[in-house]
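Lab manual, section 2.4: Encoding a predicted structure.

Procedure: take the sequence of the chain (315 residues), apply the prediction step described in section 2.3, and record the output as structure tokens. A sample record is shown.
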Amino acid sequence: MMKTAYKITTLSIISVLVLTPFVTFAQSPEERQAERQSRMEERQANRDQKIEERQENREARMADREQKMEELKEKREEHKEERQAKFCERFTEHAAKIGERMDSQSEKFTERKEKRSTNVDERRTKRTENLDEKRGEGAERRPAMYARLLERADTDAEKAAVEQFKETSEAAVATRQASVDKAITDFRTGVDALIASRKDGFGTARDSFKSKVDAAVSEAKSQCEGGTDVATVRSDFMASMEAARKTLQDTRQNTDKIGDNIKALAETRNATIKAAKEKFRTTMQAARKTLKTAFGEEETEEAGDSEESTTESAQ
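Recorded output:
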């Protein structure tokens, strides 16, 4: 009985201890609702805070990105300005070299023209000297020939025939020489005119090309100083240079076509010389025939046969 009473007492005490907090802290529905509302507001506040923090972080990252982009843009601008400055510096040096090359080429062109002109004059002088030498040889032979004919002349009629033959021969030689000289002079004058025209054309083309190059260089420098994009400056300059070169090449091709004209002049000269020689030959044949008749059909020497046996070439 005592053990049973003890167990009952112990259970009672435990029950009191377990149930006491619930009894002590029991809340009303309003209090529990208020507590739930408080916890909800607290959770909402936490969520709002986290959202605000994320927004602030996002804004901070965006601001950082914008700053970096701005810094990159500034670096690009600095690089662009630096590249622009270097390009303009290199371009100025290149433009100076272009001018130097053009001056050098102009000097070489002038030297070649002078050398070519000197060579032409030298060749002409040599051919003229050769022609004069042949004429001089003929002039020396003819008096000796006339003298031999007079020695053979026994009668007044034969002597008169020799004098007539001499007059006819000298007149024929003079006529032939005049015709040949005129043909050579006309040919040389025509060639000189063609060369001068070509030279003037080349000079005009070269001056025009130089003016266009100077204008292209000046425009490129102006664009550089004005901050125009490097690619645009280079593109515009190259286009202007290409157009200037094409114009120069076209002008040179059209101006340099004098070969056919010189050939035509040479053909005219040769035809004139050939006609003069044929006329001389015909005149001398008739003169020799008359002289042979006076001397009783005897053979005589031909005056001036080899004096001008060759045709002078163009230059």
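Check your result against the sample. The CA atoms of residues 17 and 225 lie 97 Å apart.
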